[in-house]
Design goal:
The protein is an alpha/beta fold. About 20% of the residues lie in helices and about 20% in strands. Strand 14, helix 5 and strand 15 form a beta-alpha-beta unit. The longest helix is centred in the middle third of the chain and has 17 residues, at about 250-270.
């Protein structure tokens, strides 16, 4: 197919009329189909098929009794129709049957494909399934409602992989690594502490961010006993839940119904669900389900006709082409409506064009404008589409209601991803301004300069609603491993725990949206492995007995979350509000950052709040602003509801590698 694809691109689709194919000078001339009936419309009376494949000679529809075995029991020639589509209609009830499409181009039949709009499949996603979607709804599904924040800064996001969360025997969960794990209540570790969904409720997060849970290619769903592992950033069928997380991958209904049961259960506990979506590339290029329908169209290519690779995964999709844009927009809306998904995290969002991302926002606004959208404002390589047209973080002000990850706060806190140096929390000097930049949500802000910033030379955000703050995620080492790998000479494990707490204190008290990686709250590690996308469960699993061993860490995280949820001063929604209430305070001590949130910021019940971060590995003495201060976080202890103590003396000692937060 490589030779065929090269020939197609080189000829620019100037196919002879004798071939039976329509001719187009370029992809830009391909017709756009605006209907909403791609690729299957099912009813008990008939099934209608419509596939978009403008420049091919023929298209066949193949029908099967099985989702994985045997040959087609019927093959039908599809008829050329409007706007580059081909259609077929089969009378009678096809429920329980399976189908594929096959196209002929340049006198060659390509491999079969279930299509790209496919919504249900058999095992391993090779054949599309014909089902009645009303049979996929759990009891009470019609009463399930989105869980959405009033403002995006109210969200507290918890990133989790299906297997990591429950696969360990210490989880006490029956449906390990399955969607149904999130429906189990009352699960505990051996010390009787809550795990699973009860743990999430106890911790206080507002949204779970699920690592890829659409149908991805790298796991053989027929050999689940082998315990294969993958993060899932290898998309195969974008609109189908991953089968390996269901209890019966061969049953097309099981994965869909169990996914909905998971969402329903989380919603019942007031927890929203965010999907990690990877529209920027496919698992393979040439033989992807997209490319087997319209070779070349859905991807970008270099001038020498080679596949462009801004994803670092061998290909990149062309979101700027009309039908790819249509597909992405419709796919996201489908997940939001059919599965009640509350938000979307876009992998390598910097590959997508700005127009497409704004079209996604506009489409989701029609569902509910509070649905969360954020993504990685970068790519993993060069793209033929100019950066000025892409959704990279420096263009975030051109994105409507979309946030970007702040790699600036991540690396200033713990050190850069290449492990060249430690961060502020481990005592590295001269990072005060970069920490202030993070607190001010990467905006242009009084008291913050452009000196010593980490991944930018100037502000790029214009509102705290545009920034996702985090110290770690699934990528790179988890927080504990990173802090251990770059620890200062002589640093003890007790100090590393202090570094951990300080890092998350900044994340939860900075303006923007806080985000944590699952298990950080119980001091998880990944044995020092920095890229665990195919590492075994022994590396990736969360040991829930850690919740007992490191309960002090857990209760501190719990306190940070309670503080943020109770006090809107940490959740301001505009730069104007920040400028009115947030002011950096110079305390005259190196490696210390302090700021006040004054005058009942954002309607807070506390009139004035003082936050101090001490990046030094020793106690420091500072002089407090005048007044009586009630201290709620100090030296690794958090008590947001009841002050730890009250202080009036202007001289105050902030503990080594820790934060102090107080109010009056």
């Amino acid at each position: 197919m490589r030779k065929l694809l090269f020939m197609i691109l080189a000829l620019g689709f100037l196919v002879s009329c004798n071939s039976g194919a329509k001719k187009y000078a370029s992809f830009a001339d391909f017709p756009v189909y605006n209907g909403d009936d791609l690729e299957l419309t099912y009813s008990p009376e008939s099934s209608k098929f419509r596939v978009w494949s403008p420049a091919v000679q023929e298209v066949k529809l193949l029908l099967f009794d099985s989702g994985s075995e045997g040959s087609a029991y019927e093959m039908l020639d599809m008829k050329r129709s409007k706007s580059g589509t081909w259609t077929a209609k089969v009378k009678g009830d096809l429920k329980g049957k399976f189908y594929t499409f096959q196209v002929k181009i340049e006198d060659q039949w390509l491999e079969e494909t279930p299509g790209m709009w496919v919504k249900a499949t058999g095992i391993n996603g090779k054949r599309a399934a014909i089902i009645d979607f009303t049979e996929t709804n759990p009891e009470g599904w019609e009463n399930d409602k989105h869980v959405l924040p009033e403002n995006v800064t109210d969200a507290i996001i918890y990133e989790v992989h299906m297997r990591d969360f429950s696969i360990s025997p210490t989880s006490g969960i029956k449906n390990k690594g399955k969607y149904l794990q999130f429906t189990e209540k009352g699960t505990k570790n051996k010390a009787g502490q809550a795990t699973g969904i009860d743990h999430l409720k106890e911790l206080g997060i507002t949204h779970v961010h699920l690592l890829p849970s659409y149908d991805y290619a790298s796991i053989d769903e027929s050999t689940l006993h082998e315990n294969n592992y993958n993060w899932g950033y290898d998309p195969q069928n974008y609109n189908v839940p991953e089968g390996s997380y269901s209890t019966d991958p061969a049953n097309p209904i099981s994965r869909i119904k169990e996914f909905k049961q998971m969402v329903q259960s989380l919603h019942s506990e007031g927890i929203g669900v965010i999907m990690d979506v990877v529209y920027n590339h496919t698992y393979v290029g040439e033989n992807s389900h997209l490319n087997l329908l319209v070779p070349g169209y859905f991807y970008r290519f270099n001038e020498d006709r080679t596949w462009s690779n801004a994803s670092g995964c061998g290909n990149e999709t062309a979101s700027d082409r009309e039908m790819m844009r249509k597909f992405i927009v419709e796919s996201v809306v489908y997940w939001a409506t059919e599965y009640h998904i509350d938000g979307f995290r876009f992998d390598l969002m910097g590959i997508h064009d700005i127009e497409t991302m704004n079209a996604i926002r506009a489409a989701l606004d029609k569902v509910d404008p509070r649905i969360i959208i954020y993504g990685e404002g970068w790519s993993a390589g060069a793209s033929p589409l100019g950066e000025e047209n892409r959704a990279v973080k420096k263009n975030v002000s051109q994105l409507n209601g979309i946030a970007v990850f702040s790699d600036d706060i991540r690396d200033v806190l713990k050190g850069n991803w290449t492990n060249e140096y430690p961060g502020f929390v481990a005592g590295r000097d001269s990072l005060e301004n970069a920490v202030k930049f993070a607190v001010a949500a990467a905006t242009e802000f009084p008291g913050v300069t452009n000196e010593n910033l980490v991944h930018t030379d100037k502000p790029y955000a214009t509102s705290p609603t545009q920034i996702i703050n985090y110290a770690s995620c699934h990528d790179d080492m988890c927080l504990v491993d990173k802090l251990r790998s770059r620890k200062p000479a002589g640093a003890t494990e007790a100090e590393i725990q202090k570094f951990n707490k300080l890092a998350q204190t900044v994340v939860f008290t900075a303006q923007g949206v806080p985000f944590i990686f699952a298990g950080e709250e119980v001091y998880r590690d990944k044995k020092g492995v920095n890229n665990t996308y195919i590492s075994p469960d022994s590396i990736n699993q969360i040991n829930w007995d850690n919740k007992t061993v490191y309960n002090d860490i857990f209760t501190y995280y719990q306190g940070l979350i309670a503080l943020r949820k109770s006090h809107p001063a940490f959740r301001m929604t505009s730069l104007d509000m920040m400028k009115k209430h947030l002011k950096f305070v110079e305390l005259g001590v190196p490696n210390v950052v302090a700021f006040t949130l004054s005058d009942n910021a954002n309607g807070d019940s506390w009139k004035d709040i003082l936050v101090i971060y001490n990046g030094n590995r020793k106690n420091v003495s500072v002089e407090l602003p005048e007044g009586e201060w009630n201290v709620v976080i100090h030296d690794g202890k958090a008590s947001p509801a009841t002050p730890l103590f009250t202080v009036q003396n202007p001289k105050f000692v902030v503990g080594a590698s820790s934060a102090s937060i107080m109010f009056k």
